[in-house]
Give the backbone structure.
Amino acid sequence: MHELQVPAHTQGMTKKPTDNQRPTEARSGADQELSDLLVTGPLCTPEEVAAILRVSPRTLADWRAGRGGDDTPLAIRVGGRTVYALRDVNAYLERRVQAAQTRREAGA
């Protein structure tokens, strides 16, 4: 599957570990669960995601408001702004591709 192009202003932006972070093996279950939620890749604005998905920013807002069904890209709030982790946008697209392939196979 093709990977999405990372927006130019986010290239090279990744979460770097700090010296005071414990190794993953030493984390408690709660710490590990929190760690699994952390975004480790580039973040995109709703306008960037809309361009990637070829939908309007208003459509994304509708999806965030619950009018997009059960399977929509995950949006998060950071500093009062809505952003999307590029990895979540990729995961959403992968799910859509899998659903389309399943429908095609069922109809064939």
Summary: The chain has a mean pLDDT of 78.
